[in-house]
Amino acid sequence: MTHEIKHLEEQIRHHNRAYFVLNAPEISDTEFDQLVERLKKLKPDSPVLSEIGSDLGAPGKKVTHQRPMLSLDKCYNLEDFSNWFEKIQGPVLAMPKIDGVACSIKYNSKGHLVLAATRGDGEVGEDITANVKRIKNIAQGLPAKVEIRGEVYMRLSRFKTHYQEAFSNPRNLAAGALKQKDPNKSAAYGLSFFPYDIDGMDFKTELEKFEFLKSLGFDPMPVLLAHTPEDCEQIYLDLKKQRPELDYEIDGVVFRANQVSEQTRLGITAHHPKWSIAYKFQGDSAQTQLVDVEWSLGRTGVITPVAIFEPVWVSGAMVSRASLHNLTLFEGLGLTKDAFVRIVRRGGVIPHVEQVLESVGEPFRYPKHCPSCHKETLIDGEFLCCPDPENCPQIIAGRLIHFCAVLELEGFGEKIIYSLIQAGLLKQPADLFKLRFEDLIRLDRMGDVLTKKLLAQVEQKRVLPLPVFLTALGFDELGPTIAETLANRFETLDALRQAGFEDLTQIFGIGESIAQAVQKGFEAFGPEIEALLKEIKLTKPEKPAYDSKHPLFGKSVVFTGTLTQFERKEAQKRVRALGGQTPSAISANTDYLVVGDGSISTKQKAAQKLGVQVLSEAEFAAFLKS
Fold it and tell me: Would you say 440 and 454 are in contact if contact means Cβ atoms under 8 Å apart?
Protein backbone atom coordinates (compact mmCIF):
# COMPACT_ATOMS: atom_id res chain seq x y z
CA MET A 1 0.00 0.00 0.00
CA THR A 2 2.83 2.40 0.86
CA HIS A 3 4.47 1.71 -2.51
CA GLU A 4 1.20 2.46 -4.32
CA ILE A 5 0.67 5.74 -2.46
CA LYS A 6 4.21 6.90 -3.21
CA HIS A 7 3.83 5.90 -6.84
CA LEU A 8 0.51 7.76 -7.12
CA GLU A 9 2.00 10.89 -5.55
CA GLU A 10 4.96 10.79 -7.91
CA GLN A 11 2.70 10.28 -10.92
CA ILE A 12 0.32 13.09 -9.95
CA ARG A 13 3.18 15.52 -9.35
CA HIS A 14 4.82 14.54 -12.64
CA HIS A 15 1.66 14.85 -14.74
CA ASN A 16 0.51 18.00 -12.95
CA ARG A 17 3.80 19.64 -13.87
CA ALA A 18 3.71 18.25 -17.42
CA TYR A 19 0.23 19.72 -18.01
CA PHE A 20 0.22 22.98 -16.08
CA VAL A 21 3.87 24.05 -16.21
CA LEU A 22 5.45 22.49 -19.27
CA ASN A 23 2.24 22.58 -21.36
CA ALA A 24 3.10 19.06 -22.55
CA PRO A 25 0.48 16.63 -21.14
CA GLU A 26 1.35 12.94 -21.33
CA ILE A 27 -2.00 11.48 -20.25
CA SER A 28 -5.65 12.48 -20.64
CA ASP A 29 -7.64 14.51 -18.09
CA THR A 30 -9.64 11.38 -17.32
CA GLU A 31 -6.58 9.35 -16.47
CA PHE A 32 -5.19 12.18 -14.34
CA ASP A 33 -8.52 12.40 -12.50
CA GLN A 34 -8.43 8.64 -11.88
CA LEU A 35 -4.98 8.95 -10.28
CA VAL A 36 -6.26 11.77 -8.07
CA GLU A 37 -9.40 9.87 -7.04
CA ARG A 38 -7.37 6.78 -6.16
CA LEU A 39 -5.01 8.85 -3.99
CA LYS A 40 -7.99 10.49 -2.27
CA LYS A 41 -9.22 7.03 -1.27
CA LEU A 42 -5.87 5.75 -0.08
CA LYS A 43 -4.53 8.93 1.55
CA PRO A 44 -7.10 11.76 1.71
CA ASP A 45 -4.67 13.97 3.65
CA SER A 46 -1.86 13.65 1.10
CA PRO A 47 -0.19 17.06 0.56
CA VAL A 48 -0.06 16.31 -3.17
CA LEU A 49 -3.84 16.79 -3.40
CA SER A 50 -3.44 20.45 -2.48
CA GLU A 51 -0.58 21.00 -4.94
CA ILE A 52 -2.66 20.48 -8.07
CA GLY A 53 -2.75 23.82 -9.84
CA SER A 54 -2.70 25.66 -13.12
CA ASP A 55 0.64 27.44 -12.97
CA LEU A 56 2.96 25.72 -10.52
CA GLY A 57 6.47 26.90 -11.07
CA ALA A 58 5.46 29.89 -13.16
CA PRO A 59 7.48 33.09 -12.71
CA GLY A 60 5.93 36.22 -11.26
CA LYS A 61 4.77 37.86 -8.06
CA LYS A 62 2.83 35.59 -5.71
CA VAL A 63 -0.78 36.43 -4.87
CA THR A 64 -2.68 34.87 -1.96
CA HIS A 65 -6.39 34.30 -2.66
CA GLN A 66 -8.57 35.57 0.18
CA ARG A 67 -11.11 32.91 -0.75
CA PRO A 68 -9.52 29.68 -2.06
CA MET A 69 -10.00 28.90 -5.75
CA LEU A 70 -10.99 25.27 -5.32
CA SER A 71 -10.99 22.67 -8.06
CA LEU A 72 -14.18 20.81 -9.02
CA ASP A 73 -15.21 17.28 -8.21
CA LYS A 74 -15.67 15.25 -11.42
CA CYS A 75 -17.82 12.43 -12.77
CA TYR A 76 -18.04 10.56 -16.08
CA ASN A 77 -21.40 8.77 -16.05
CA LEU A 78 -25.06 9.37 -15.18
CA GLU A 79 -24.99 7.07 -12.14
CA ASP A 80 -22.24 9.03 -10.40
CA PHE A 81 -23.85 12.31 -11.40
CA SER A 82 -27.23 11.19 -10.03
CA ASN A 83 -25.60 10.30 -6.71
CA TRP A 84 -24.32 13.88 -6.50
CA PHE A 85 -27.65 15.36 -7.63
CA GLU A 86 -29.58 13.54 -4.88
CA LYS A 87 -27.79 15.68 -2.28
CA ILE A 88 -28.94 18.95 -3.88
CA GLN A 89 -32.19 20.63 -2.87
CA GLY A 90 -33.81 22.73 -5.60
CA PRO A 91 -32.68 23.30 -9.20
CA VAL A 92 -29.13 23.32 -10.49
CA LEU A 93 -27.46 25.68 -12.95
CA ALA A 94 -25.64 24.14 -15.93
CA MET A 95 -22.90 25.75 -18.03
CA PRO A 96 -20.21 24.52 -20.44
CA LYS A 97 -16.88 23.67 -18.80
CA ILE A 98 -14.47 25.95 -20.65
CA ASP A 99 -11.05 24.37 -21.23
CA GLY A 100 -9.03 27.46 -20.34
CA VAL A 101 -6.98 29.00 -17.54
CA ALA A 102 -8.82 29.93 -14.34
CA CYS A 103 -8.08 33.36 -12.91
CA SER A 104 -9.31 35.91 -10.38
CA ILE A 105 -9.80 39.61 -11.22
CA LYS A 106 -10.25 42.21 -8.47
CA TYR A 107 -11.72 45.69 -8.73
CA ASN A 108 -11.26 48.32 -5.98
CA SER A 109 -13.84 50.60 -4.34
CA LYS A 110 -13.55 52.97 -7.31
CA GLY A 111 -14.28 50.13 -9.68
CA HIS A 112 -10.79 50.01 -11.17
CA LEU A 113 -9.16 46.72 -12.15
CA VAL A 114 -6.29 46.49 -9.66
CA LEU A 115 -5.25 42.84 -9.50
CA ALA A 116 -5.51 39.67 -11.57
CA ALA A 117 -4.03 36.31 -10.57
CA THR A 118 -3.98 32.73 -11.78
CA ARG A 119 -5.54 29.96 -9.71
CA GLY A 120 -2.16 28.45 -8.82
CA ASP A 121 -2.58 25.80 -6.14
CA GLY A 122 -5.90 27.29 -5.08
CA GLU A 123 -4.36 29.21 -2.19
CA VAL A 124 -1.58 31.13 -3.96
CA GLY A 125 -1.44 32.17 -7.63
CA GLU A 126 0.70 34.37 -9.88
CA ASP A 127 0.17 38.06 -10.60
CA ILE A 128 -0.94 38.48 -14.25
CA THR A 129 -2.58 41.91 -13.87
CA ALA A 130 -0.77 43.65 -16.72
CA ASN A 131 -1.60 40.87 -19.17
CA VAL A 132 -5.25 40.52 -18.13
CA LYS A 133 -5.78 44.27 -18.58
CA ARG A 134 -4.95 43.76 -22.27
CA ILE A 135 -7.72 41.20 -22.85
CA LYS A 136 -10.34 43.13 -24.82
CA ASN A 137 -13.53 41.62 -23.39
CA ILE A 138 -12.53 42.19 -19.76
CA ALA A 139 -13.97 45.38 -18.29
CA GLN A 140 -11.38 47.87 -17.02
CA GLY A 141 -13.85 49.54 -14.67
CA LEU A 142 -16.93 48.35 -12.78
CA PRO A 143 -19.50 50.14 -10.60
CA ALA A 144 -18.52 48.25 -7.43
CA LYS A 145 -15.70 46.64 -5.44
CA VAL A 146 -15.92 43.02 -6.55
CA GLU A 147 -13.89 39.97 -7.49
CA ILE A 148 -14.67 38.28 -10.79
CA ARG A 149 -13.54 34.73 -11.43
CA GLY A 150 -13.52 33.04 -14.79
CA GLU A 151 -11.62 31.32 -17.59
CA VAL A 152 -9.12 32.92 -19.94
CA TYR A 153 -9.16 31.07 -23.25
CA MET A 154 -8.33 31.40 -26.94
CA ARG A 155 -11.15 31.28 -29.46
CA LEU A 156 -10.90 28.24 -31.71
CA SER A 157 -11.35 30.39 -34.82
CA ARG A 158 -8.28 32.42 -33.86
CA PHE A 159 -6.27 29.35 -32.89
CA LYS A 160 -7.01 27.58 -36.18
CA THR A 161 -6.20 30.69 -38.24
CA HIS A 162 -2.98 31.75 -36.52
CA TYR A 163 -1.48 28.99 -34.37
CA GLN A 164 -2.75 25.50 -35.17
CA GLU A 165 0.26 24.43 -37.22
CA ALA A 166 2.76 25.46 -34.57
CA PHE A 167 1.02 24.71 -31.25
CA SER A 168 -0.68 21.65 -29.84
CA ASN A 169 -3.88 23.17 -28.43
CA PRO A 170 -5.43 26.54 -27.50
CA ARG A 171 -5.51 25.89 -23.75
CA ASN A 172 -1.75 25.45 -23.47
CA LEU A 173 -1.17 28.44 -25.75
CA ALA A 174 -3.44 30.61 -23.58
CA ALA A 175 -1.53 29.53 -20.46
CA GLY A 176 1.76 30.46 -22.08
CA ALA A 177 0.40 33.81 -23.28
CA LEU A 178 -0.68 34.75 -19.75
CA LYS A 179 2.85 34.11 -18.44
CA GLN A 180 4.47 36.54 -20.88
CA LYS A 181 6.61 39.17 -19.17
CA ASP A 182 5.81 41.65 -21.93
CA PRO A 183 2.08 42.65 -21.86
CA ASN A 184 2.29 43.63 -25.53
CA LYS A 185 3.35 40.12 -26.48
CA SER A 186 0.56 38.69 -24.32
CA ALA A 187 -2.02 40.99 -25.94
CA ALA A 188 -0.89 39.92 -29.41
CA TYR A 189 -2.34 36.45 -28.82
CA GLY A 190 -5.88 37.86 -28.72
CA LEU A 191 -7.15 36.01 -25.64
CA SER A 192 -10.77 36.05 -24.44
CA PHE A 193 -12.52 35.68 -21.09
CA PHE A 194 -15.67 34.04 -19.73
CA PRO A 195 -16.72 34.92 -16.14
CA TYR A 196 -18.21 32.15 -14.01
CA ASP A 197 -18.44 33.75 -10.54
CA ILE A 198 -18.62 37.10 -8.73
CA ASP A 199 -17.81 37.82 -5.08
CA GLY A 200 -18.42 40.99 -3.08
CA MET A 201 -22.15 41.40 -3.65
CA ASP A 202 -25.19 39.54 -2.31
CA PHE A 203 -27.12 37.27 -4.65
CA LYS A 204 -29.80 34.72 -3.88
CA THR A 205 -29.17 32.52 -6.91
CA GLU A 206 -26.48 31.63 -9.41
CA LEU A 207 -28.79 32.74 -12.21
CA GLU A 208 -28.87 36.26 -10.73
CA LYS A 209 -25.06 36.33 -10.74
CA PHE A 210 -24.84 35.54 -14.44
CA GLU A 211 -27.52 38.07 -15.35
CA PHE A 212 -25.58 40.73 -13.41
CA LEU A 213 -22.28 39.74 -15.06
CA LYS A 214 -23.94 40.14 -18.44
CA SER A 215 -25.19 43.61 -17.46
CA LEU A 216 -21.59 44.61 -16.64
CA GLY A 217 -20.58 44.00 -20.25
CA PHE A 218 -18.87 40.63 -19.92
CA ASP A 219 -19.46 38.03 -22.62
CA PRO A 220 -22.34 35.95 -21.29
CA MET A 221 -21.60 32.36 -20.35
CA PRO A 222 -24.49 30.22 -21.70
CA VAL A 223 -26.36 28.85 -18.67
CA LEU A 224 -29.51 26.74 -18.19
CA LEU A 225 -31.59 25.66 -15.19
CA ALA A 226 -32.28 21.94 -14.63
CA HIS A 227 -34.61 20.29 -12.15
CA THR A 228 -33.95 16.55 -12.56
CA PRO A 229 -31.01 14.28 -13.38
CA GLU A 230 -32.73 13.57 -16.71
CA ASP A 231 -32.79 17.31 -17.50
CA CYS A 232 -29.08 17.49 -16.70
CA GLU A 233 -28.28 14.48 -18.87
CA GLN A 234 -30.11 16.08 -21.80
CA ILE A 235 -28.16 19.32 -21.36
CA TYR A 236 -24.97 17.27 -21.25
CA LEU A 237 -25.86 15.45 -24.48
CA ASP A 238 -26.95 18.66 -26.22
CA LEU A 239 -23.70 20.44 -25.38
CA LYS A 240 -21.67 17.42 -26.44
CA LYS A 241 -23.49 17.48 -29.79
CA GLN A 242 -22.97 21.25 -30.16
CA ARG A 243 -19.28 20.98 -29.23
CA PRO A 244 -17.91 20.97 -32.82
CA GLU A 245 -19.84 24.17 -33.61
CA LEU A 246 -18.65 26.20 -30.60
CA ASP A 247 -15.86 28.78 -30.91
CA TYR A 248 -14.24 27.65 -27.66
CA GLU A 249 -13.05 24.33 -26.32
CA ILE A 250 -15.19 22.61 -23.70
CA ASP A 251 -14.44 19.31 -21.98
CA GLY A 252 -17.67 18.80 -20.08
CA VAL A 253 -20.55 20.52 -18.29
CA VAL A 254 -20.43 22.22 -14.88
CA PHE A 255 -23.47 21.91 -12.60
CA ARG A 256 -24.05 24.01 -9.47
CA ALA A 257 -26.77 24.28 -6.87
CA ASN A 258 -28.66 27.37 -8.01
CA GLN A 259 -29.64 28.60 -4.53
CA VAL A 260 -26.77 30.32 -2.70
CA SER A 261 -28.35 29.21 0.61
CA GLU A 262 -28.09 25.61 -0.58
CA GLN A 263 -24.40 26.12 -1.33
CA THR A 264 -23.89 27.37 2.20
CA ARG A 265 -25.71 24.34 3.62
CA LEU A 266 -23.60 21.84 1.67
CA GLY A 267 -20.26 23.57 2.27
CA ILE A 268 -16.86 22.61 0.86
CA THR A 269 -14.06 20.10 1.35
CA ALA A 270 -10.35 20.93 1.34
CA HIS A 271 -10.33 20.31 -2.41
CA HIS A 272 -13.76 21.12 -3.92
CA PRO A 273 -17.19 22.59 -3.21
CA LYS A 274 -19.81 19.93 -2.46
CA TRP A 275 -22.45 21.93 -4.30
CA SER A 276 -20.79 21.79 -7.74
CA ILE A 277 -19.52 19.07 -10.06
CA ALA A 278 -18.01 18.75 -13.53
CA TYR A 279 -19.64 16.11 -15.73
CA LYS A 280 -16.76 15.40 -18.12
CA PHE A 281 -16.99 14.28 -21.75
CA GLN A 282 -15.57 11.00 -22.92
CA GLY A 283 -13.73 10.65 -26.22
CA ASP A 284 -15.11 8.95 -29.34
CA SER A 285 -14.99 5.15 -29.37
CA ALA A 286 -14.37 2.36 -31.86
CA GLN A 287 -14.38 -1.44 -31.87
CA THR A 288 -11.41 -3.63 -32.69
CA GLN A 289 -9.85 -7.01 -31.91
CA LEU A 290 -7.28 -7.55 -29.19
CA VAL A 291 -4.05 -9.18 -30.38
CA ASP A 292 -1.83 -9.38 -27.31
CA VAL A 293 -0.91 -7.89 -23.94
CA GLU A 294 2.69 -6.81 -23.43
CA TRP A 295 4.23 -6.17 -20.02
CA SER A 296 6.50 -3.12 -19.88
CA LEU A 297 9.10 -2.86 -17.11
CA GLY A 298 9.64 0.74 -16.00
CA ARG A 299 12.72 2.28 -14.39
CA THR A 300 11.04 2.27 -10.95
CA GLY A 301 10.33 -1.47 -11.13
CA VAL A 302 6.60 -1.23 -11.90
CA ILE A 303 5.50 -3.66 -14.64
CA THR A 304 2.70 -2.09 -16.70
CA PRO A 305 0.34 -4.03 -19.01
CA VAL A 306 -0.08 -2.64 -22.55
CA ALA A 307 -2.90 -3.79 -24.85
CA ILE A 308 -1.97 -4.47 -28.50
CA PHE A 309 -4.92 -4.51 -30.90
CA GLU A 310 -5.73 -4.34 -34.61
CA PRO A 311 -5.19 -0.73 -35.78
CA VAL A 312 -8.40 1.30 -35.60
CA TRP A 313 -9.33 4.91 -36.37
CA VAL A 314 -10.51 6.79 -33.24
CA SER A 315 -11.08 10.54 -32.81
CA GLY A 316 -8.99 11.46 -35.85
CA ALA A 317 -6.04 9.12 -35.28
CA MET A 318 -5.03 5.53 -36.04
CA VAL A 319 -4.17 3.69 -32.82
CA SER A 320 -2.97 0.13 -32.17
CA ARG A 321 -1.89 0.03 -28.52
CA ALA A 322 -3.06 1.41 -25.18
CA SER A 323 -1.67 1.31 -21.66
CA LEU A 324 -3.73 -0.67 -19.18
CA HIS A 325 -2.04 1.29 -16.37
CA ASN A 326 -2.05 -1.25 -13.53
CA LEU A 327 -2.84 -4.80 -12.50
CA THR A 328 -6.24 -3.89 -11.04
CA LEU A 329 -7.51 -2.43 -14.32
CA PHE A 330 -6.05 -5.34 -16.31
CA GLU A 331 -7.81 -7.95 -14.19
CA GLY A 332 -11.05 -5.94 -14.06
CA LEU A 333 -11.35 -5.91 -17.85
CA GLY A 334 -11.10 -9.70 -18.18
CA LEU A 335 -9.12 -9.59 -21.42
CA THR A 336 -8.93 -12.69 -23.63
CA LYS A 337 -6.96 -13.59 -26.76
CA ASP A 338 -8.71 -12.19 -29.88
CA ALA A 339 -11.44 -10.52 -27.77
CA PHE A 340 -13.41 -7.68 -29.33
CA VAL A 341 -12.91 -4.50 -27.33
CA ARG A 342 -14.13 -0.91 -27.33
CA ILE A 343 -11.37 1.69 -27.57
CA VAL A 344 -11.86 5.30 -26.42
CA ARG A 345 -9.48 8.22 -26.89
CA ARG A 346 -10.18 9.90 -23.58
CA GLY A 347 -10.05 13.64 -23.82
CA GLY A 348 -9.69 13.04 -27.57
CA VAL A 349 -6.03 12.19 -26.99
CA ILE A 350 -5.03 9.05 -25.07
CA PRO A 351 -6.27 5.60 -26.25
CA HIS A 352 -7.93 3.55 -23.55
CA VAL A 353 -9.47 0.07 -23.51
CA GLU A 354 -12.96 0.84 -22.23
CA GLN A 355 -14.50 -2.63 -22.11
CA VAL A 356 -14.56 -6.13 -23.56
CA LEU A 357 -17.47 -6.50 -25.99
CA GLU A 358 -17.01 -10.20 -26.75
CA SER A 359 -14.63 -12.71 -25.19
CA VAL A 360 -13.15 -15.19 -27.66
CA GLY A 361 -10.00 -17.09 -26.69
CA GLU A 362 -8.03 -17.94 -23.59
CA PRO A 363 -7.80 -15.26 -20.88
CA PHE A 364 -4.57 -13.30 -20.54
CA ARG A 365 -2.70 -13.76 -17.25
CA TYR A 366 -0.25 -11.45 -15.59
CA PRO A 367 3.37 -12.68 -15.61
CA LYS A 368 4.45 -14.53 -12.50
CA HIS A 369 8.04 -13.52 -13.12
CA CYS A 370 9.78 -10.25 -13.99
CA PRO A 371 10.40 -10.10 -17.78
CA SER A 372 14.00 -9.05 -17.10
CA CYS A 373 15.42 -10.75 -13.99
CA HIS A 374 12.80 -13.56 -14.02
CA LYS A 375 12.31 -13.40 -10.27
CA GLU A 376 8.79 -13.94 -8.95
CA THR A 377 6.75 -10.75 -9.37
CA LEU A 378 5.40 -8.85 -6.40
CA ILE A 379 1.91 -7.35 -6.15
CA ASP A 380 1.92 -4.03 -4.29
CA GLY A 381 -1.56 -2.51 -4.13
CA GLU A 382 -2.73 -2.02 -7.71
CA PHE A 383 0.72 -2.56 -9.19
CA LEU A 384 2.71 -5.53 -10.40
CA CYS A 385 6.38 -5.02 -9.55
CA CYS A 386 9.83 -6.46 -9.99
CA PRO A 387 10.81 -7.71 -6.52
CA ASP A 388 14.47 -6.73 -6.86
CA PRO A 389 14.86 -3.49 -8.89
CA GLU A 390 18.38 -2.88 -7.53
CA ASN A 391 19.61 -6.07 -9.22
CA CYS A 392 17.27 -6.31 -12.23
CA PRO A 393 19.29 -6.18 -15.51
CA GLN A 394 16.79 -4.07 -17.49
CA ILE A 395 16.42 -1.49 -14.72
CA ILE A 396 20.18 -1.40 -14.21
CA ALA A 397 20.70 -1.05 -17.96
CA GLY A 398 18.26 1.84 -18.15
CA ARG A 399 20.19 3.78 -15.50
CA LEU A 400 23.53 3.00 -17.16
CA ILE A 401 22.34 3.92 -20.66
CA HIS A 402 21.15 7.28 -19.33
CA PHE A 403 24.44 7.85 -17.51
CA CYS A 404 26.52 7.14 -20.62
CA ALA A 405 24.31 9.30 -22.81
CA VAL A 406 24.66 12.32 -20.50
CA LEU A 407 28.46 11.88 -20.31
CA GLU A 408 28.50 11.54 -24.13
CA LEU A 409 30.38 8.25 -23.98
CA GLU A 410 30.11 7.31 -27.67
CA GLY A 411 30.17 3.60 -28.31
CA PHE A 412 28.53 2.67 -25.02
CA GLY A 413 25.17 1.83 -26.57
CA GLU A 414 22.54 -0.63 -25.44
CA LYS A 415 24.24 -3.72 -26.91
CA ILE A 416 27.60 -3.15 -25.21
CA ILE A 417 26.00 -2.16 -21.90
CA TYR A 418 23.79 -5.27 -21.88
CA SER A 419 26.82 -7.42 -22.76
CA LEU A 420 28.81 -5.92 -19.88
CA ILE A 421 25.91 -6.47 -17.48
CA GLN A 422 25.52 -10.10 -18.57
CA ALA A 423 29.27 -10.59 -18.14
CA GLY A 424 28.99 -9.33 -14.57
CA LEU A 425 31.22 -6.31 -15.28
CA LEU A 426 28.62 -3.55 -14.93
CA LYS A 427 26.02 -3.01 -12.25
CA GLN A 428 26.31 0.67 -11.40
CA PRO A 429 27.90 3.74 -13.06
CA ALA A 430 31.08 3.52 -10.95
CA ASP A 431 31.83 0.16 -12.59
CA LEU A 432 32.46 1.95 -15.90
CA PHE A 433 35.61 3.45 -14.42
CA LYS A 434 36.86 0.03 -13.30
CA LEU A 435 36.72 -1.57 -16.75
CA ARG A 436 40.03 -2.99 -18.03
CA PHE A 437 41.31 -3.82 -21.49
CA GLU A 438 41.01 -7.56 -20.85
CA ASP A 439 37.34 -7.08 -19.78
CA LEU A 440 36.24 -5.38 -22.96
CA ILE A 441 38.32 -7.34 -25.45
CA ARG A 442 36.49 -10.54 -24.50
CA LEU A 443 33.15 -9.17 -25.73
CA ASP A 444 31.83 -10.14 -29.17
CA ARG A 445 32.94 -7.87 -32.04
CA MET A 446 35.23 -5.91 -29.73
CA GLY A 447 38.58 -5.33 -31.41
CA ASP A 448 41.78 -3.82 -30.08
CA VAL A 449 41.18 -0.34 -31.55
CA LEU A 450 37.58 -0.04 -30.33
CA THR A 451 38.47 -1.32 -26.87
CA LYS A 452 41.21 1.29 -26.44
CA LYS A 453 38.91 4.02 -27.76
CA LEU A 454 36.16 3.18 -25.24
CA LEU A 455 38.56 3.04 -22.32
CA ALA A 456 40.12 6.36 -23.35
CA GLN A 457 36.67 7.98 -23.40
CA VAL A 458 35.95 6.76 -19.88
CA GLU A 459 39.29 8.10 -18.63
CA GLN A 460 38.44 11.54 -20.03
CA LYS A 461 35.32 11.61 -17.83
CA ARG A 462 37.08 11.21 -14.50
CA VAL A 463 36.67 14.95 -13.97
CA LEU A 464 33.06 16.10 -14.35
CA PRO A 465 31.31 19.43 -13.94
CA LEU A 466 28.76 19.21 -11.15
CA PRO A 467 25.73 19.93 -13.41
CA VAL A 468 26.70 17.08 -15.75
CA PHE A 469 27.15 14.71 -12.81
CA LEU A 470 23.75 15.62 -11.36
CA THR A 471 21.99 15.15 -14.69
CA ALA A 472 23.68 11.79 -15.25
CA LEU A 473 22.35 10.44 -11.94
CA GLY A 474 18.93 10.20 -13.57
CA PHE A 475 16.78 11.51 -10.72
CA ASP A 476 13.17 12.19 -11.62
CA GLU A 477 12.67 15.81 -12.79
CA LEU A 478 16.41 16.55 -12.56
CA GLY A 479 17.24 17.57 -16.12
CA PRO A 480 20.13 19.74 -17.34
CA THR A 481 18.47 23.09 -16.57
CA ILE A 482 17.54 22.18 -12.99
CA ALA A 483 20.97 20.57 -12.47
CA GLU A 484 22.70 23.75 -13.56
CA THR A 485 20.48 25.85 -11.30
CA LEU A 486 21.28 23.67 -8.29
CA ALA A 487 25.00 23.57 -9.07
CA ASN A 488 25.19 27.36 -9.38
CA ARG A 489 23.32 27.80 -6.10
CA PHE A 490 25.18 25.25 -3.92
CA GLU A 491 28.49 24.95 -5.82
CA THR A 492 29.43 21.61 -4.23
CA LEU A 493 27.73 18.22 -4.07
CA ASP A 494 28.11 18.07 -0.28
CA ALA A 495 26.31 21.39 0.15
CA LEU A 496 23.50 20.25 -2.12
CA ARG A 497 23.07 16.90 -0.36
CA GLN A 498 22.89 18.67 3.00
CA ALA A 499 20.31 21.19 1.76
CA GLY A 500 16.92 21.01 3.43
CA PHE A 501 13.56 20.98 1.70
CA GLU A 502 13.00 24.69 2.36
CA ASP A 503 16.49 25.52 1.09
CA LEU A 504 15.58 23.90 -2.23
CA THR A 505 12.09 25.33 -2.65
CA GLN A 506 13.31 28.88 -2.05
CA ILE A 507 15.31 28.68 -5.31
CA PHE A 508 13.58 30.21 -8.31
CA GLY A 509 12.33 27.44 -10.60
CA ILE A 510 12.53 24.68 -7.94
CA GLY A 511 9.05 23.70 -6.84
CA GLU A 512 8.05 21.21 -4.16
CA SER A 513 7.87 18.27 -6.56
CA ILE A 514 11.42 18.89 -7.82
CA ALA A 515 12.76 19.38 -4.29
CA GLN A 516 11.19 16.12 -3.16
CA ALA A 517 12.51 14.27 -6.22
CA VAL A 518 16.04 15.54 -5.57
CA GLN A 519 15.98 14.55 -1.90
CA LYS A 520 14.46 11.18 -2.70
CA GLY A 521 17.10 10.60 -5.39
CA PHE A 522 19.98 11.29 -3.04
CA GLU A 523 18.48 8.91 -0.51
CA ALA A 524 17.82 6.11 -3.02
CA PHE A 525 21.10 6.42 -4.92
CA GLY A 526 23.35 7.18 -1.95
CA PRO A 527 25.58 4.08 -2.24
CA GLU A 528 25.86 4.54 -6.03
CA ILE A 529 26.95 8.15 -5.56
CA GLU A 530 29.55 7.24 -2.95
CA ALA A 531 30.99 4.59 -5.26
CA LEU A 532 31.17 7.12 -8.11
CA LEU A 533 32.95 9.70 -5.97
CA LYS A 534 35.77 7.22 -5.40
CA GLU A 535 36.36 7.14 -9.17
CA ILE A 536 35.78 10.72 -10.31
CA LYS A 537 36.37 14.30 -9.29
CA LEU A 538 33.75 17.01 -9.47
CA THR A 539 34.50 20.59 -10.46
CA LYS A 540 32.67 23.64 -9.20
CA PRO A 541 30.66 25.57 -11.79
CA GLU A 542 32.57 28.53 -13.10
CA LYS A 543 30.96 31.89 -12.53
CA PRO A 544 30.94 33.36 -16.03
CA ALA A 545 31.67 37.03 -16.53
CA TYR A 546 29.16 37.97 -19.20
CA ASP A 547 29.50 40.93 -21.51
CA SER A 548 26.14 42.61 -21.06
CA LYS A 549 26.71 44.59 -24.27
CA HIS A 550 26.95 41.49 -26.46
CA PRO A 551 23.90 41.17 -28.78
CA LEU A 552 23.17 37.64 -27.49
CA PHE A 553 23.36 38.52 -23.79
CA GLY A 554 20.00 37.81 -22.15
CA LYS A 555 18.52 36.62 -25.45
CA SER A 556 16.57 33.43 -26.09
CA VAL A 557 17.86 31.54 -29.14
CA VAL A 558 16.25 28.44 -30.67
CA PHE A 559 17.84 26.28 -33.40
CA THR A 560 16.20 24.31 -36.20
CA GLY A 561 17.47 22.39 -39.22
CA THR A 562 20.95 20.97 -39.84
CA LEU A 563 23.83 23.30 -38.97
CA THR A 564 26.98 23.07 -41.12
CA GLN A 565 29.42 25.33 -39.25
CA PHE A 566 28.59 24.05 -35.75
CA GLU A 567 27.29 21.01 -33.96
CA ARG A 568 23.97 22.09 -32.44
CA LYS A 569 25.15 21.38 -28.88
CA GLU A 570 28.26 23.47 -29.50
CA ALA A 571 26.18 26.34 -30.89
CA GLN A 572 23.93 26.22 -27.83
CA LYS A 573 26.95 26.22 -25.52
CA ARG A 574 28.31 29.30 -27.32
CA VAL A 575 25.03 31.14 -26.73
CA ARG A 576 24.91 30.20 -23.05
CA ALA A 577 28.56 31.23 -22.64
CA LEU A 578 27.50 34.71 -23.76
CA GLY A 579 24.69 34.89 -21.20
CA GLY A 580 21.90 33.74 -23.50
CA GLN A 581 19.36 30.93 -23.20
CA THR A 582 18.72 28.03 -25.59
CA PRO A 583 15.25 26.54 -25.05
CA SER A 584 14.18 23.72 -27.33
CA ALA A 585 10.84 25.19 -28.38
CA ILE A 586 9.61 28.43 -29.93
CA SER A 587 7.52 30.76 -27.77
CA ALA A 588 6.64 34.42 -27.68
CA ASN A 589 9.71 34.88 -25.43
CA THR A 590 12.06 33.70 -28.20
CA ASP A 591 14.32 36.42 -29.61
CA TYR A 592 15.99 34.55 -32.47
CA LEU A 593 15.45 31.37 -34.46
CA VAL A 594 18.62 30.12 -36.14
CA VAL A 595 17.72 28.14 -39.27
CA GLY A 596 20.05 25.52 -40.75
CA ASP A 597 19.63 23.39 -43.85
CA GLY A 598 16.37 21.59 -44.49
CA SER A 599 12.75 22.26 -45.35
CA ILE A 600 10.65 24.83 -43.51
CA SER A 601 10.11 23.38 -40.04
CA THR A 602 7.28 23.74 -37.54
CA LYS A 603 9.56 25.99 -35.48
CA GLN A 604 10.08 28.29 -38.46
CA LYS A 605 6.34 28.51 -39.12
CA ALA A 606 5.77 29.34 -35.46
CA ALA A 607 8.51 31.99 -35.54
CA GLN A 608 6.93 33.66 -38.55
CA LYS A 609 3.54 33.80 -36.87
CA LEU A 610 4.96 35.12 -33.60
CA GLY A 611 7.20 37.69 -35.26
CA VAL A 612 10.41 36.07 -33.99
CA GLN A 613 13.52 37.22 -35.90
CA VAL A 614 14.93 34.44 -38.08
CA LEU A 615 18.72 34.19 -38.57
CA SER A 616 20.66 32.15 -41.09
CA GLU A 617 23.61 30.17 -39.75
CA ALA A 618 25.96 32.76 -41.29
CA GLU A 619 24.11 35.60 -39.53
CA PHE A 620 24.30 33.68 -36.26
CA ALA A 621 28.05 33.18 -36.71
CA ALA A 622 28.42 36.92 -37.26
CA PHE A 623 26.49 37.56 -34.03
CA LEU A 624 28.94 35.35 -32.13
CA LYS A 625 31.84 37.49 -33.35
CA SER A 626 30.16 40.78 -32.41
Answer: yes
